[in-house]
Specification:
This protein is mostly beta strands and about 220 residues long. It has two helices and 14 strands.
Length: about 220
């Protein structure tokens, strides 16, 4: 059986499913307001999207084995899929980079785990089974970089997922510093295309992603 990647944004458009309306009381560790034109998506909305089947196909490696209830993230800025650099040496072990031309397997797979109490998501990398954290204490160009390195979930590992119906795009906001995840297209070296929580608002393709259902 051939595995297929399903675009969540395409599904949402074809099924006329609208993200939940903003206005619910924010959790203690949530930023209070959504940016203009964006709406937070909860677990029920995300589940309904992934259950749909009428969606466009995305690039899929010939030998890729899609796994159930997982998502892949594609940067709008460079068109590449986000991967976990599990083989990087410390201190950048598990850093997230939008560097894969196609979904090839666990390196590009993430589990989005919703917590109703905080109305936030934790992202677990399939590559190393670790939760993605924002490295707020890093300095310089690596400050607030995203790394799959945690075995449990706290404030460092929580994100709000937003959808823009107008743009047909998704964005992630860290609850640790209130900043939106950005793909560093201008970086060079080992952190080229790294993901960092550093933008005050999603103002363009640097902060925008396409989400793909990688369940069988």
């Amino acid at each position: 059986m051939t595995s297929v990647l399903l675009s969540l944004s395409a599904v949402l458009a074809t099924s006329a499913l609208v993200a939940p309306a903003a206005g619910a009381a924010p959790g203690a560790d949530r930023p209070a307001a959504a940016p203009a034109g964006w709406e937070a998506v909860d677990a029920a909305g995300l589940a309904r999207i992934t259950e749909e089947t009428n969606a466009r196909k995305a690039p899929l490696a010939a030998d890729a084995a899609a796994e159930p209830e997982l998502l892949a993230m594609q940067s709008v800025r460079n068109g590449r899929f986000v991967a976990t650099e599990a083989n990087y040496a410390a201190p950048n072990t598990g850093v997230l980079r939008a560097r894969s031309a196609e979904f090839g397997g666990s390196w590009e797979g993430f589990s989005f785990e919703y917590d109703e109490a905080t109305e936030t998501y934790a992202l677990k990398s399939l590559a190393n089974d670790r939760y993605v954290a924002v490295e707020k204490n890093y300095t310089g160009s690596a400050q607030n970089v995203l790394r799959a390195r945690s075995t449990s979930v706290g404030g460092w590992e929580r994100f709000i997922l937003y959808y823009s119906e107008t743009l047909d795009r998704w964005a992630l906001q860290s609850t640790l510093n209130g900043m939106f995840v950005t793909m560093e297209n201008g970086y060079t070296g080992s952190l080229q295309y790294a993901l960092r929580a550093r933008s005050a608002e999603p103002t363009g393709s640097w902060e925008e992603f396409v989400l793909y259902d990688i369940s069988a």
